[in-house]
Amino acid sequence: MAHSLMEFALLCLTSLFTMINPVSITPVFSSITADLPVQQARHVALKATMTAFAILVTFALTGSIIFKVFAISVNSLKIVGGVLFFLMGYEMVQARMGRTRIDKQEEMEDLEEYTNNVAITPLAIPLICGPGAIATVIILMEQHKDILFRSVLFLSILTVIGVTYLFLLFAKPIMDRLGESGNKVLMRIMGLIVMVIAVEYFFGGLKPMLRDIFEIVPLANP
User: Could you tell me the pTM of the whole model?
Assistant: First the structure.
């Protein structure tokens, strides 16, 4: 029992860390919050990770039910996530992410609105809590009905989200050392990577759907 529990804990941690990938989120977070005060950037990091944690726990508890009720498939989620990723990556490649930043002379309420918006989208969704992470927690939740195993899953989610928060917390000092030119170069590179990930997500969801369609069509039209 203890051995199985340790194996499941390791599976949860590695799967979630791979799907969330805090390392790849860090440069994007830095680009989005580059013009924000340190305190506001930390607020964005905290809100984004807390939102992502709440979403993952919610999907772990009710994901399979939600998918069944609304007839949503994981493949559909991958396609939508891929489109969102691609649009965001394109903006980064064009170095236009900065246009969404807040001017330092704007009103405080605009700053608050901006930080609240970017904390939820694109940071919490789909960067931290993407289709892969959502699908992972649903699958892991369905693997074991035992309360102990499910507690391990929730603890793993909390651990990985905590690590992600630490990555975001130290992102700004690291990126400040790169300077404006370094940030722009890094933003374009990360934009390309985000677009590649988007394509993988998109076709990862599209292929199974097309496969199902082509399997059904011959049966419907013999």
Answer: 0.69
